[in-house]
Amino acid sequence: MKNVTHSFVFLAHWPFAGSFGLNTDILATNLINLTVVVGVLIFFGKGVCASCLLTDLLDNRKQRILSTIRNSEELRRGTLEQLEKARLRLQKVELEADEYRMNGYSEIEREKANLINATSMSLEQLEKSKNETLYFEKQRAMNQVRQRVFQQAVQGALGTLNSCLNTELHFRTIRANIGILGAIEWKR
């Protein structure tokens, strides 16, 4: 850029061989420059009027603005339609959520009642099983006590018999018992 400026300055100081030169004094050449510009515009723009150009520019600008407004309105309408659809979907989802919530609560209550019933039945079964186990354990304990008492009684009786009986009496008792057992077998 500096080179271009220097070349104009160089041309301004370079003497031409005639009356043509570059005047760098802007204030002095302002009227001449305006005249040249207006002349060029009139010569090249004969069929074009300035107001027509301005009108065309304004009409184009107006059409672009109106087009932008129409597009904005269409976008707004589309957005409002989407918003309304979204609201309807939201209401539908909220109703479904309420329905699920109510069904869920009733399902929870039903499951709770089922659980209580199942637990109650399990407790009853457990109580019954416990009572049966206690009864069997009691019976077993009683049988064990009876067996011990019987064993002790038999041992006591054998001890008494062994101390009181002599061998002769012992053999006679055995023969008498064998005779009784033999008679029982014949009856069968």
Automatic annotation (TrEMBL):
Annotated GO MF terms: proton-transporting ATP synthase activity, rotational mechanism
Q: Membrane topology for this entry?
A: Single-pass membrane protein
One of its Pfam families is: ATP-synt_B
Alphabetical UniProt keywords: ATP synthesis, CF(0), Chloroplast, Coiled coil, Hydrogen ion transport, Ion transport, Membrane, Plastid, Thylakoid, Transmembrane, Transmembrane helix, Transport
InterPro entries, per database record: ATP_synth_b/b'su_bac/chlpt
Q: Which residues form a coiled coil?
A: 76-103
Subcellular localization, per the record?
Membrane; Plastid, Chloroplast thylakoid membrane
Membrane-crossing residue ranges in chain numbering: 31-54
Annotated GO CC locations:
chloroplast thylakoid membrane; proton-transporting ATP synthase complex
Question: What else does UniProt say about it?
Answer: In plastids the F-type ATPase is also known as CF(1)CF(0).
Complex and partners: F-type ATPases have 2 components, F(1) - the catalytic core - and F(0) - the membrane proton channel. F(1) has five subunits: alpha(3), beta(3), gamma(1), delta(1), epsilon(1). F(0) has four main subunits: a(1), b(1), b'(1) and c(10-14). The alpha and beta chains form an alternating ring which encloses part of the gamma chain. F(1) is attached to F(0) by a central stalk formed by the gamma and epsilon chains, while a peripheral stalk is formed by the delta, b and b' chains.
What does this gene product do?
Component of the F(0) channel, it forms part of the peripheral stalk, linking F(1) to F(0). F(1)F(0) ATP synthase produces ATP from ADP in the presence of a proton or sodium gradient. F-type ATPases consist of two structural domains, F(1) containing the extramembraneous catalytic core and F(0) containing the membrane proton channel, linked together by a central stalk and a peripheral stalk. During catalysis, ATP synthesis in the catalytic domain of F(1) is coupled via a rotary mechanism of the central stalk subunits to proton translocation.
Q: What is this protein called?
A: ATP synthase subunit b, chloroplastic
* Species the sequence originates in: Eleusine indica (Goosegrass)
Q: Gene encoding it?
A: atpF
